[in-house]
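Quick one:
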Amino acid sequence: MDRMGLRRLVLTALFAALVTVATMVINVPMVGTQGFVNVGDTMIFVTGIFMGPLFGLLAGGIGSALADLLLAYAHWAPWSLLIKGIEGFLVGVIAHSHFRSQRRIGLTTVLAMVVASTWMVLGYYVAGGIMRGFPVALTSVPGNIVQGLGSTILAIPVIHAFRNLDLVGHVLDDKLRK
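Output:
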């Protein structure tokens, strides 16, 4: 494995760990669906926006599933792997290139987080419907909306604070090759 491949692997693992920790630090149980509301989406958004769709997919899916396992919500881990992975992919596809060129939080970045949050709410509604029944799953929708909006709001200052950090850009790539 070359240095860039190793760097990308390490960054993926780091961001997956950050998603796991952010998910575990603040979590509010939802009795009806036996799930919980958390702020892990904040780090999924940061990952997808800074690193791109593949990193968002891997860090979002793996980090969220790992948090489910560690918090004894193993029944949600396969769903989180899929739902949160796609959430990270979506935010990366929509916002990464634009953010990388502009280095600021614009409408595209905010819309990307809203679209990804909407997917997360829908994904967990369907998953909850399959697992517990759709009337019960409907009770998780308000909490997931708050989670998505709260994570979007929290992600904005984090992204702004680190906006000039170029994790996988050409400048760092060139420095590592020397």
